[in-house]
Write a structure and sequence with these properties.
The complex is a heterodimer of chains A (836) and B (96). With 836 residues, chain A is α+β, with helices and mostly antiparallel strands. Chain A is built from 20 helices and 30 strands. Chain A has a 4-stranded antiparallel β-sheet, with helices on one face. A 4-stranded antiparallel β-sheet of chain A has the order 4-5-6-7, with no helix packed on it. Chain B is of the alpha+beta class and 96 residues long. Chain B contains 2 helices and 5 strands. Classes of the chains: A alpha+beta (836), B alpha+beta (96). Chain A: One of its GO terms (cellular component) is dynein axonemal particle.
């Protein structure tokens, strides 16, 4: 069906409205929507295809006339409206507005009686259906329309179908629709409410706030129409109408100004109370080492702390470790202990734990005292103390200028200062007043040189005792030998052992260090008296010790181990007699097949000079067997020993030897007979030469380190003889006392100086000064015999060992520095001596 | 342990040594060879001094550490060997 009455009157589209039985009234909704005061209400009307339908609707309408619509009755035949264009397009408008059902109901009742409608709208109504959508048209407005027209339509119903404009009929439908929609909405709302259960409320709901797309509520784009088009006139008229409308708007009753206000909720004050927030101030100073420690500690803490915790109660150990680590940073130590308690009965446990803490501390202190670090610290502390105690002596040893307190300033001061100093010094050093006054006068004359030269006196050379190496262990032992370490000139090895057969007792070998003169660094207890010692040159940590029993032991002084590294007591060819001298010699051994190396050579009382090799223990080969040589008068060398003596023929005990410093193949050996044999390593059968002059056992032989032609020998016959290599007769004989000369040694600094020790005194001879008398003589304490002498290499000191186990260090003072290379001078002296 | 005892004895009997005190890291004396009041006094005073010295050395170079400390005064000399767990303090008087 098409609506006929439109084209001319209405400006609107002519639309075909077909009614279908759908529950939705799309168009109706649009018409209902909005509250605009515009009267250009667009209504879509639906035409019934049949009168019956309309009748039925009318009947419904009649029944409901004057009353508000009954929701239930309206739910009958619902029909949707579909609007079709002339072309047949479906231009059914879709609803934009879903009205508030309650509001619509309200307004229906109110506006019913009061509304006055302009004719224009009625005509519009009658004329056509419009597609215009206005917003805010109330259902209430529609409602009364429908009624009036409904009634009119009723009256006219029989006339024409066209006039029975179904838009009134539509109205109830619309109302129906709204009612339906209301009910629908109401239903839906209730449904929604039921779905919320307790779980849902408790459930955590994620709320996402996003910006929605822009919702267009009204979009009326401007339409541009050309003047020459057909619709131009229409558009112009419309525009004019619009402008008139706008003018009429002001003051017109049709337009009402309305104010809107958002309702603000009433505020309410609520008070909340919480527990007091405890504040604590904590200060810490971050020093740069603190930061460094923290960074390093992070890497290393985890592993050790875990192992600690596994073994002991966790709280205590962790707190303890924290304590030790953080003691420098944190203040509260006891509080951390208490906080780490996790058990229930606090009081009892606290007491228990406190007791445990005390125990732990005690254990800890014990641990400290036993720790190696502590031992080491004590060691250093001891040395430091020694340094303090012996400082002037050690300084003298090192030939440092000794500090005298109070220091006499050598600056050329004012006389007042000088007199002040004089007063101070007078108080302290009363015995030297005169000297000081003289000095001060010199100072007063303000010439520094005078001061340095004024007290110059020519002092005789003397020995000044610095200190002595002794300790309670060595008391009573006889010092038999001494040797310096080849690498460290401050390390001294001293062997303690008796010389005589009857006095034999357990011996001792000690290593002393300069840094601690009161306790040896190493102590090696030996079963027998130690009679010979030497440090190795190639391996400076090896110390060879020869004993009275003939055993040779080698010790490693690097470790604290007191057992010997090697011992010759089990080898086949060990010595039977006491080892009187040991030496490590660097030697070419091309003939024997070995490369140049170091060998240990010993001479012993069984008459053998043997060479020891360190290969799987000590192995030895004999270098020489000493043979008895009878006196010159009767016998020849070598053979006829057996004839003269009915005694058991045996080899003479060797007492000493010394290698030629230039040629290590040649050495001198002294025997108990008093002979000195010159031998060679290549011949082990024969001596090269024999020097016979001594009448008693030769105790020591020493080559002159500067002039290798000369050597000294000392013997029990109270004499020291200076020999020259090429002469079988002694060059010079030094005899000053009637005591056995135990030891001699050339000074390493001068070709003329040597030291000799006989039992009661020490003699320093200087050949350049006198060949008859010693330069310096120092007497021993009564009851003590000097037995050994050793020169210090790096300083002007001499070490003297005595029979009481004391090794004294003496400083040689005021020795005239002689040119050590004056070998010619020595020869001159000798020449003169020989001549005389 | 015996060695430690021996060394301590030797140190104590050295010339001029007035006392030897071993203090643990918390400032409590573990071992002392002087009377109680002196011990406590030394332990307390030395602790802060050592901390200061240690802090100074390490501030200059964090990889460095204090190994020995000597305070020479007119009347005597105090020697301290500090360690992580303890301090060893020896007082010596040479000018007697």
């Amino acid at each position: 069906m098409s609506s006929s009455a439109h084209a001319g009157k209405s400006k609107r589209h002519s639309v075909v409205v077909s009614v279908t039985s759908k529950p939705e009234f799309n168009m109706k909704r649009t018409s209902i929507s909005g509250t605009s005061s515009q009267r250009q209400i667009s209504h879509a009307s639906g035409f019934h295809p049949s009168r019956i339908g309309s009748l039925s609707r009318r009947s419904i309408l009649i029944t409901s006339d004057g009353k508000t619509m009954d929701k239930g009755s309206l739910i009958g035949s619902k029909h949707t409206i579909q609007v079709f264009d002339e072309q047949g397009k479906d231009v059914t408008p879709r609803p934009l507005y879903r009205p508030e059902p309650s509001a619509s109901l309200h307004r229906q009742s109110k506006i019913l009686s009061t509304q006055d409608f302009s004719g224009a709208t009625g005509s519009d109504f009658l004329s056509s259906l419009s597609m215009h959508q206005t917003s805010g048209v109330n259902a209430s407005l529609v409602g009364p329309f429908s009624r009036t027209y409904g009634s009119s339509s009723i009256s006219k119903s029989t006339t024409s179908t066209t006039e029975s404009i179904a838009d009134e009929i539509v109205e109830p439908g619309s109302r129906r629709d709204t009612a339906i929609s209301l009910s629908d909405v109401l239903v839906r709302r209730e449904e929604i409410k039921e779905q919320l259960t307790k779980e849902d409320i408790d459930k955590r709901v994620d709320i996402y706030l996003t910006e929605t797309e822009t919702i267009w509520l009204l979009d009326m784009p401007t339409v541009m129409v050309s003047i020459e088009s057909e619709d131009a006139e229409k558009v112009k008229e419309r525009n004019k109408d619009y402008i008139e409308l706008c003018k009429n708007r002001v003051g017109n009753d049709c337009f009402v100004e309305r104010m809107m206000q958002t309702l603000n909720g009433a505020p309410k004050n609520k008070e909340v109370q919480c527990d007091k927030i405890l504040m604590e101030d904590k200060g810490i100073m971050a020093t740069s080492w603190d930061l460094y420690d923290s960074f390093n500690a992070l890497e290393t803490t985890l592993a050790p702390s875990v192992t600690e915790r596994s073994s002991r109660p966790t709280s205590l150990s962790s707190s303890k470790s924290n304590v030790t680590k953080d003691r420098e940073r944190t203040m509260s130590i006891t509080s951390t202990d208490r906080e780490s308690i996790t058990s229930s009965s606090i009081i009892d446990l606290e007491s228990v734990i406190l007791a445990r803490i005390h125990e732990e501390e005690e254990d800890h202190s014990e641990a400290i005292l036993k720790s190696e670090k502590f031992q080491q610290d004590l060691f250093f502390m001891e040395r430091v103390l020694m340094e303090n105690v012996f400082q002037p002596k050690l300084a003298a040893y090192r030939q440092l200028p000794v500090l005298i307190e109070p220091v006499l300033t050598s600056d050329a001061g004012k006389e007042e200062a000088v007199t002040e100093e004089a007063e101070e010094e007078e108080e302290e050093e009363e015995g030297e007043e005169e000297e000081e006054e003289q000095k001060e006068i010199v100072v007063g004359s303000s010439i520094l040189l005078d001061l340095s030269e004024a007290p110059e006196e020519i002092l005789p050379p003397s020995l000044e005792r610095l200190w002595s190496y002794t300790c309670e262990l060595t008391n009573g032992h006889n010092v038999s030998c001494m040797a310096w370490n080849k690498l460290n000139p401050d390390l001294l090895a001293v062997g303690y052992g008796q010389f005589g057969f009857q006095e034999q007792k357990k011996g001792l070998a000690c290593c002393w260090s300069l840094k601690n003169p009161m306790w040896p660094e190493r102590i090696y207890q030996c079963d027998h008296g130690v009679t010979a010692l030497d440090f190795s040159l190639a391996n400076p940590n090896l110390l060879a010790v020869g004993m009275y029993s003939g055993t040779i032991a080698i010790y490693n002084v690097q470790t604290h181990n007191t057992t010997a590294l090697l011992d010759s007591s089990e080898s086949f060819d060990k010595h039977i007699g006491p080892v009187w001298q040991l030496k490590w010699i660097e030697q070419d051994r091309g003939t024997t097949g070995d490369d140049k190396g170091e060998i240990l050579i010993s001479i012993s009382g069984d008459g053998r000079i043997t060479k020891w090799l360190i290969r799987k223990g000590l192995g030895c080969t004999d270098l020489m067997k000493l043979k008895r040589t009878a006196s010159e008068r009767k016998k020849l060398t070598g053979e006829k020993e057996k004839k003269s003596e009915a005694l058991i023929s045996r080899q003479p005990p060797g007492m000493c030897f010394d290698f030629d410093p230039r040629n290590t193949n040649i050495y001198l050996a002294g025997t108990e007979e008093g002979h000195i044999h010159k031998c060679s390593c290549s011949y082990n059968e024969q001596f090269l030469e024999t020097y016979q002059a001594h009448k008693g056992p030769v105790y020591k032989i020493a080559w002159n380190p500067f002039s290798t032609d000369m050597f000294l020998s000392c013997s029990a016959d109270w004499s020291i003889i200076l020999w020259r290599q090429d002469s079988l007769r002694p060059i010079l004989t030094f005899s000053s006392t009637t005591n056995v000369v135990h030891d001699i040694m050339w000074s390493p600094k001068s070709a003329f100086v040597f030291a000799a020790v006989n039992e009661g005194r020490v003699e320093i001879w200087d050949l350049s000064v006198s060949t008859l008398d010693p330069l310096i003589v120092t007497f021993a304490n009564p009851g003590v015999k000097f037995t050994t002498v050793l020169f210090a290499r790096n300083t002007d000191c001499i070490l003297i060992g005595d029979s009481d186990g004391i090794v004294s260090v003496y400083e040689l003072r005021n020795m005239t520095a002689s040119d050590s290379n004056k070998v010619d001078a020595l020869h001159d002296i000798i020449g003169s001596a020989l001549a005389s | 342990m015996a060695e430690v005892e021996e060394t301590l004895k030797r140190i104590q009997s050295q010339k001029g040594v007035q006392g030897v005190i071993v203090v643990n890291s918390e400032g409590i004396p573990i071992k002392s060879m002087v009377d109680n009041s002196t011990t406590v006094q030394y332990a307390g005073l030395m602790h802060s001094f050592i901390m200061k010295a240690k802090s100074t050395v390490r501030d200059i170079d964090p990889q460095n550490d204090l190994t020995f400390l000597r305070i020479c005064s007119k009347k005597n000399e105090i020697m301290i060997a500090p360690d992580k767990d303890y301090f060893l303090i020896v007082i010596q008087n040479l000018t007697e």
